[in-house]
Specification:
Tyrosyl-Transfer RNA Synthetase; globular; 2 domains; binds adenosine monophosphate; mainly alpha; three-stranded parallel β-sheet; Rossmann fold
């Protein structure tokens, strides 16, 4: 059966190793499988749920598209577009927000984290962010959605909204209920400075993350400065449980080398972190630097990127427009 893949990444700058290992690397694998129809969206409407600089936003949209392509997504095989170019996303989001009970949205932990202490000042957009995400996915009848672990709750909400719509309007199976594709291991990459905090675009310390635009020297330096503990590397996984920084570095090594944590522990068990760090820096540079070089090359060719996004938006519009017309008919417009 053909899988219909949909996923999105916000153009909020500083795309990092967490985005790559948690999401984009999987996008590339899915793109490479001939059986799949893939759509990868630069979710600029999601980005403006928090304040953005208008010039920076434009360049971040292009840089995100460039990162998709530089990582190995083939724009002649997969659709790459930006969300604001396809009006059905916002339209669908409004309609679905009238179906989703506030109680469901009140449970979303990402809103609580992002809104912080002063909830009153957070935008309404940030609150209904997960409904826009549901609209993105449901407009394309996506069967599978590859994301990092932090998006699991949003996908569950998407599934609940689809079920509710189908039930309320007695249109069984009209909105397709998507399956999350979340890697069992290494789907949450942590900060290099604090093993209990997610690696994030917005961490004020650049040393906390490896950006996909970092040079070889920057990667080596950041790995060297990554936080560790003062014990040797253990031989078995159980012993990593209360050692978040050790677990994270070993997890990153395993994920980027496409091997199990067990195999990595076989290699490094009993050794010091300095040994792991040398090899980690080496493999990260060899995998990330070519992507970073390619991002630089592509972002210098704005016309090329704009053409890819335009072509992608035309194809996405064709699919989404049909679905939104059906949705409107079903609800009585
Ligand atoms: P965002 O940058 O928030 O739009 O996230 C884009 C994708 O990267 C989503 O699928 C996230 O789940 C994933 N992602 C973001 N940060 C991490 C992280 N630290 N570890 C693993 N996946 C992540």
């Amino acid at each position: 059966m053909t899988k219909k893949i949909f996923s999105g990444v916000q153009p909020t700058g500083n795309l990092h190793l967490g985005n790559y290992l948690g999401a984009i690397k999987n996008f590339v694998e899915l793109n490479n499988d001939k059986e799949n129809d893939c759509i990868f969206c630069v979710v600029d409407l999601h980005a403006i749920t928090v304040k953005q600089d208008k010039y920076q936003l434009k360049s971040n949209i292009r840089e995100t598209a460039a990162t998709f392509i530089a990582s190995g997504i083939d724009p002649s095989k997969s659709i790459i577009f930006n969300q604001s170019e396809v009006p059905a996303h916002a339209e669908g989001s409004w309609i679905l927000s009238c179906m989703a009970p506030m109680g469901w949205l009140n449970r979303m932990t990402q809103f609580k984290e992002k809104a912080g202490k002063d909830k009153e000042k957070a935008s309404v957009g940030l609150y209904i962010y997960p409904v826009l995400m549901a609209s993105d996915i449901l407009l394309y009848d996506a069967t599978h959605v590859p994301v990092g672990e932090d998006q699991k709750q949003h996908l569950e909400l998407t599934r609940d909204i689809a079920h509710k719509f189908n039930k309320d309007f007695k249109c069984d199976d009209f909105l397709k209920v998507p399956e999350p594709l979340i890697k069992e291991n290494f789907s949450r990459i942590m900060s290099l400075k604090d093993g209990l905090k997610k690696m994030s675009k917005s961490d004020p310390s650049d040393l906390s993350r490896i950006n996909l635009t970092d040079s070889k020297d920057e990667i080596v330096n950041k790995v060297k400065k990554a936080k560790t503990d003062s014990f040797p590397i253990p031989n078995d996984e159980e012993k990593l449980k209360s050692r978040p920084e050790a677990e994270n570095l070993l997890g990153i090594f395993s994920s980027i080398s496409n091997q199990t944590l067990g195999k990595t522990l076989d290699e490094f068990g009993g050794k010091n972190f300095s040994d792991l760090k040398v090899q980690l820096a080496e493999i990260l540079s060899s995998k990330i630097s070519p992507i970073s070089e390619e991002i630089k090359k592509l972002t210098n060719d704005q016309q090329y990127l704009d053409n890819i996004l335009l072509e992608g938006a035309n194809k996405a519009n064709e699919i989404a427009r049909k679905k939104i017309l059906e949705i409107k008919k079903i609800i009585g417009f």
